[in-house]
């Protein structure tokens, strides 16, 4: 009997978390969600700081990285991978070597956080760098959002 009483609030809380958002919430967050879904598609960041690096990527399993950098970045951060938006500026560092499924890199507290299917490239030349990419899955998430679907599960 005690187990039933103790588990009831947890079960109720789990049902509340899984409940669909109210109509009012969907109306209020519809446009902000579409804007953030659109921004999730593209990564375009300038980096400033020390380093020498090259990266090419076509999804998680077809990537190449070689180098080291510790920089400040500014620009579009790429896929959120969560509900809250990423800041358009911050610190980023990465060191090591990666080739396909073998990844021997160390990322700082704020890594680049690439999308699972992201296609892109990056370069860091002494004090200036650039990181560009496109995430096809986020494009599908953007289109699905117009009909109230959220495959990336990143809407408010």
Architecture overview:
The chain has a five-stranded antiparallel sheet. The longest helix has 18 residues, at 23-40. The chain has 156 residues and is of the alpha+beta class. It has a domain at 43-135. The two termini are 38 Å apart. Helix 2 (23-40) runs antiparallel to helix 3. 29% of the residues lie in helices and 42% in strands.
Throw out a few tags for this protein.
single chain; 156 residues; alpha+beta; 5 strands
Rg over C-alpha atoms, rounded to the nearest angstrom: 19 Å
Distance between the termini: 38 Å
Total beta strand runs = 5
Main beta sheet strand tally, sense and closure: 5 strands, antiparallel
Q: Note poorly predicted spans.
A: none
Number of helices: 3
Q: Strand share of the residues?
A: 35-45%
Structural class: alpha+beta
Helicity level: 25-40%
Shape: elongated
Q: Mean pLDDT, rounded to whole units?
A: 87
Strand order of the largest sheet: 4-3-2-1-5
Order of helices and strands: HHEEEEEH
Oligomer: single chain
What's the arrangement of secondary structure elements?
Blueprint: H1 2-18, H2 23-40, E1 42-58, E2 63-77, E3 89-99, E4 102-107, E5 119-134, H3 136-145
Antiparallel strand pairs: 1-2, 1-5, 2-3, 3-4
Task: Describe this structure in a few short sentences.
With 156 residues, this protein is of the alpha+beta class. The chain contains 3 helices and 5 strands.
């Amino acid at each position: 009997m005690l187990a039933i009483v103790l588990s009831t609030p947890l079960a109720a809380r789990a049902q509340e978390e899984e409940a669909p958002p109210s109509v009012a919430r969907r109306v209020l967050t519809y446009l902000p969600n579409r804007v953030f879904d659109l921004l999730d598609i593209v990564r375009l960041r300038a980096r400033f700081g020390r380093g020498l690096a090259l990266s090419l990527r076509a999804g998680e399993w077809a990537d190449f990285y070689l180098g080291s950098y510790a920089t400040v970045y500014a620009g579009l951060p790429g896929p959120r991978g969560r509900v809250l938006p990423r800041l358009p500026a911050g610190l980023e560092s990465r060191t090591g070597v990666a080739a396909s499924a073998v990844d021997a890199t160390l990322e700082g507290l704020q890594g680049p956080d690439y999308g699972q299917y992201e296609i892109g490239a990056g370069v860091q030349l002494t004090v200036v760098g650039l990181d560009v990419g496109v995430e096809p899955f986020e494009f599908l998430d953007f289109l699905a959002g117009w009909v109230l679907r959220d495959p990336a599960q990143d809407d408010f």
